Each structure stands twice: as structure tokens, then as C-alpha cells.
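Lecture notes, unit on protein representations.

Consider one protein chain, 498 amino acids long.
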Amino acid sequence: MTTTRRDFLRSAAIAATVPAVAGVTACTPDVPDRIRSGDRAPAGTDPALQADLQEALARHGVVGASGAVFANGEIRTAAAGLTNISSGVAMTPETVMHIGSITKIFNTTLLMQMVDDGLVDLAAPVSTYLPELRLADPNHLARITVGMLVNHTSGIDGEMVPEQGHDEEIIEKAIPRFANMGMIHEPGADTSYCNTATVIAGYLCQRIRERSWYDLVKERIFQPLGMEHAAVLPEDALLHRASVGHFTDPETGEPVRTSFVFLPISFAPAGATAMMSASALVTFAATHMGDGTGLNGATILSPESARAMRTETTRGRGEGSPVAFGLGWMLSEGGFVSHGGGGPGILANLTAHPESNVAVAVLGNSSHSAGLTSELASKWMEEAAGVAPPPPLVRPIVEAEVDIARYAGRYENIAQVYEIVEMDGGIGVSLRAKFPFYDDTPMEPTPPAPLKPVGNDAFTYPDAEGNATASIMSFLDPRPDGRMTYIAQGARMVPRAD
């Protein structure tokens, strides 16, 4: 089976869907007739949104998708395709679908509720509340504050850990597994997306509240806001019409149902388990735009905490990392707050514009759904708010001599290995995962893919025609010997290992 660089980048994104994959496209499979059987509009859908969704579904070859727009105080929905290609069940607006790392906003909301109740200080060291927590370097841990857990500045080298088996996959048992995790950067000194830090924040919530994290999400968010079509425990998904993910068979080009539905569920606070309808998701976003008060009048968060979550605290570095972080939320130019989500064969997009009081959610159940979700999120936001999120950053390729020795070598974190090699007088990259995230995660090094310079120690992956794409890899912080210390891609930093 041939694995492409694009396949790896999607796999390596795991629960995050950060900007590193925003401009990456994947092969679009032919859509079998049995998928088209879900084309009939479900009852209650908005005709204009439904037409857009059905057209995009067919063009991108996605098995099933759902969308919702909150604008002018109302929620409009659409759904098309199938929940599961094996069962043939049609998608509806009430279908619960994975939201992946969008869960991080829910997790941070729980944390900020504790700030409102005077139970936690964001500036306090995490060890104040979790004396049992261990990392590889005690001095590193001692300098990590609670706030750093939810704005990706903790510096923990914690992407994810392998599945431990059903009986071991609880949040509390995940915490001891972090004891050997090292440091990517000094606490608070830089920004690198970190799933482990989010899990620690979720564990902190359940330790202080003395309630299961799952119960906290249900009792303190879902139920007060009337989010009827939402599940956070895997077994609760059985109470709803539920969607599963799909991949593309490299031999036939046909969509194939994922062999497992959830990432390791001990990583639930980072995005492993939460599923909901698109309308439930925009209901949650509307609550944040309402400074903590929901559409039904229920208040789950103080205005101060809601605003703090969407206020910039840090920003990623590198030419391909324009993303800024509040607390939980990602921020972009034009006043947009957003988050993406990924999982086994799924991609999700939530975008909100508080100034216009508009939110859009688009959920897809195919691993190559990124084109559909980003395209419709932008289109529907522009139609409803009169302004669109900034497009993916594309830097033009420049003619420049590449100092190969400056970049070449091995860079790695806890989950991935990047080999930067000489290629055609310049450099290329071979990628490998240390353990399988998804069915199609490459466990062997991929063939080197060329990187073309765009200036400022940054490189792009050209498309088939040799044009620059939005996938940009930056090299940061030259050492005394001239060799670079980090790769930055999207919001992640990967340190040199050789």
C-alpha cells in the first residue's frame, strides 16, 4: 500500500486539525451510488444550506456530512449522505458526529467555571492542585501553570500515547503515563499544540469537583444549554443516530469504514470521544458569543471568563503558523474564533464571529473532509456575517540556494519522526509515526517529498504542478553550529533529535 505525504499529515494531526493541514488536499474517491442514496433532504433542513452541502458532498466524495448556521438568533441545519457506508443509514441533522479537538473548548469551559467559583487560579502552578503529577523533569513541571495547560504553552512533549486496552483507558490512569514525557520548550516561552496538557486540565477538573469528567460535561454544559443531541461517553452515542469515520481504500479508491471509532478514550478531554449534532455545536458557540449565557437563558460561564477565553494569550511561530490562541479557542484575523477537530476518518470545523453573532459548524465523516468543511464554513460565514475567515496562507516559491546542512537531520516528538534529507539539490522530508493513530497511519518512513523555499527558513510542499501550497514547514532557532533547533508546522513545534 502506497502512503502519501498528505496521508501522513492528516494522520499526524490526530485530534487537532491545526493549520498545518488547512491547505492539504487528499485524493477524492468516486462516490458509490449507495452514498448518493442519502441525497434526499432530511425533514427540517434549510433548502439553501442543503443544496450547498449536497453539491459539496458529491464533489469532494465525502460519505456523509452535517452543517449548522447560527445567525439572527436562529439555527439552520443541513445533512446529507450516510452515517455509515456499511449500514447505509442516512445522515440527518440530529445525527451525532465526532467533533475531535473542538472538545478542547468544552474542557476549557469546565476549567474556567472553576475559576469563576474561586477553586482554581490560572497563574498557580499545576502542582499546587495535582501534587501526584509527574513529568520527566521535575523542574519543568514546577514551572507549568494551570493556564499554560489550555493555551498550549506548557512545553510538554505530549501528542498522545498508544491505546492501552479498554480496561486501562480511563482519564485517571492516563496521568501516570505522562511521567516520562519530556520538554519541547521552556514553560510559557513558546507555543506548541499539546494534547497531554489538555488531558491534565480535564483531570484537574474532575479531581477538584470530585465528579467524573464525563459527568461534568453533561451536567455543567450539555444539560443547562439543552444540548439534546450530544454525547461524551462512547456508550451514550448509542442513544442517538450516530456517525462513524471513513477512509479511502488506496487500491480501489472506494470509501471504507474505520475499524475503530475512538482514539484512546483516556484522552477524552483532548477530543477522543465527544460527538454531537452540528446544531448542538453552534448552540454551544452561541453561548460563548453571548458571554456565557445560552440561547435558552442558562448561564454556564461568567462574561469575564467567556471573554478571556477568546482573548489572545500567545501565538505560534513560523511562516506557516499565523494561528493565535486564547484559552481553548484559536483566534484569527478579522475577529474570528474557531477550532478544528480530527479523529479516525473524520474532520470537523467550528467557526464563530462574535462581532456578528454568527457561528458555523460543519462535520464530515471522511478522512479527506477538510476541503468540504473549510469551504462551506467560509461560504456560510460570509453569507451570514458578511465577512469570511482569512484563507489559508500561501507563500510563493522563491529561487534561492538552500544550505542543506542547516536543515538536514532528524526531528522528532513523542509521536512522530521527521527526516530532513538532501533532495534534488535542496531538501525533502520523510515522515513516520511511532504508533498508529488511524487505520492508514504510515508506520514505515514515507518516500521523501520535496520542500521548496519560500523565504525566512520556511518551505512549502509543492503540488503536482510544482506550485506552492498552504502546507508550510518552518525551521526555527539556529544553534551555534548553524543547524536549526525546531521544525514548526501549524501550531506544533518538533525539536531536532540528532
